[in-house]
Amino acid sequence: MLKLELNDLYPRYFMAIFIFIFSLLLFVFTIGYHLESSIKINNLNITKISNEQRYQHYLYFSRSERLLYREKAREMFQFGYDNYMKYAFPQDELDPINCRGRGPDIERPENYNINDVLGEFSLTLIDSLDTLAVMGNVSEFQQAVKLVIDHVRFDRNSTIQVFEATIRVLGALLSAHLLIIDPLQPFGNLTIEDYDNELLDLAHDLASRLLPAFENTPQGLPYPRVNLMTGLVDGSRNDTSTAGAGSLSLEFSILSRLVGDPVYEQVARRAVNSLWDKRNNVTGLLGSVIDVNSGEWLGQLSGLGAGIDSFFEYLLKNYILFGDEADLRMFDDAYRSVTQYMRRGRVNCMDEEGIHPIFVNVNMHTGQLATTWIDALQASFSAVQVLRGDIDEAICLHALYYSIWRKFGVLPERFNWQIKMPDVLFYPLRPEFIESTYFLYQATKNPFYLHVGRDILDNLNTYTKVECGFATVHDVRDKTLEDRMESFFLSETCKYLFLLFDEDNYLNQHGANHYIFTTEAHIIPLMAKLRRKIWDLNEMTSYVENTNDKQTYTHEHELINVNRDLIKVEKNIISIKKKRANQTSCQSRPISHRHQLPLSANLLYQVDEMVGVITSQP
């Protein structure tokens, strides 16, 4: 009987166990499902928090660290400059690995990479003059000026590129001359005893030797190269870049107004107007390479980088320095075309939806995509955008290049945004990205850009410093080096790094509204004298200024505050409207933004993913 009862209990026992296990599994599954959902939600929160954490160190940069990096920038320049003077002067450049000088490649005249720049005129010394001044090294500046006066001559049998000689040598001589004669002497007493305008005379001599490039050209476009002794060389090439032909106007016009000879300004302005007239009548875009004789576009690629970059830059800077509103209208027209046809990505770059903006290379006639790469020279366009007051767009473009820099530790010459790898591998110590970093810090005072500068400086010291200077990176992937230190490293790269960290520098405290940087970073004061011209460029005839105008300046060295006042030129006399040039854009970024990231953490993460700094999560 008992055995029978136990047998009856077994099915009930197993059923109870089955129900218990089933209920337990159902409970675990239910909880697990909700737990999984909770984890997924939490993961989203964690990802968002981690983005904030990933970039939060950019929010603060101490004064002590800023001063430390100012001195590191000074040491960087001094190390390169001292070794140039020790091992290379009076030659043009320093080979920093083998500790020797470099001049033109006489045996291979077709070696344009070297011969376009080096002309046996102590290039690096001349190009470094105003960097010495900006860093406050008065005694070395004065000594360097005396060396230039005593040793530099331009009656050399050297065939050089007109553009490179203009921006590196002519611009440097004009800048140093203006620093010497400046009655304010804001960088220390840079005056030279018994100075008799020798640097201006050298600049005048050099420009005169460049003039044959413009003679008898049917389109008003200069040939790209001249021999400093003989002028044009038989059989020389007719192709020139838009930047090469159209970025001479700033230095040539300064010279004309200093020496009272209109011819230099006339030929340079004629080249700008000729290029402008040849832009496509539908897109408004210019090509990158043109035949100086026929005016035919040989390179129909239109972009913001090599071959065209400084053309846009000088349209705007010509307006700032000389006040001709035609230059501003040309720049604004060009910028509209660039934005319409080259800019890809979301409309508002600060939005978190859509693709981060990028300026691509297009066909000048159709506006259709031409390449999948961008180059290192385009990085300077953020600085141009800052000058025009388009701060948000400048921030977004700069962020793209910062991600590329962080991916490789330096900036490849060309980066293919489609495959997220470089197309051209070298980095010749270029300054363009550093230039934009400096301009954006001045515009926003956001410590983010001090961190960017620190990364740049540390990487240059880590990857490019060698026994006698800083060397070109041959391959950004493995950081192999080439034995060359171009003059712009001391003229631009070191100058912008130093100024980024030197908060107390006159240029940062008082001079930002009174000076402009040439495309080679030579500083030019916004002097009243440079706004006066006593000729009509169209007719090449003299005219008399209206001296009864109440707005005329009392002293030719009087400085003009362009950023404080919107300056308008009427009948070549300066009149001033009391309105801030960057009023709208400046008001859109309040002081409180200095304590925030310039782009949200999610946007910075998005750019890092776009470039390949961070691998996208599945």
From TrEMBL:
GO biological process, alphabetically ordered: carbohydrate metabolic process; endoplasmic reticulum mannose trimming
Catalytic class of the enzyme: hydrolase
Localization, UniProt: Endoplasmic reticulum membrane
Single Gene Ontology MF annotation: mannosyl-oligosaccharide 1,2-alpha-mannosidase activity
Active site: E164 (proton donor), D309, E413 (proton donor), E432
Any Pfam family matching the protein: Glyco_hydro_47
Binding residues for Ca(2+): T519
Cofactor(s) named in the record: Ca(2+)
RNA-binding is among the record's keywords: no
Entries under InterPro entries matching the protein: 6hp_glycosidase-like_sf, EDEM1/2/3, Glyco_hydro_47, Seven-hairpin_glycosidases
Family under the similarity heading: Belongs to the glycosyl hydrolase 47 family.
Function comment: Extracts misfolded glycoproteins, but not glycoproteins undergoing productive folding, from the calnexin cycle. It is directly involved in endoplasmic reticulum-associated degradation (ERAD) and targets misfolded glycoproteins for degradation in an N-glycan-independent manner, probably by forming a complex with SEL1L. It has low mannosidase activity, catalyzing mannose trimming from Man8GlcNAc2 to Man7GlcNAc2.
Designated name of the protein: alpha-1,2-Mannosidase
Species in which this protein is naturally found: Rotaria sordida
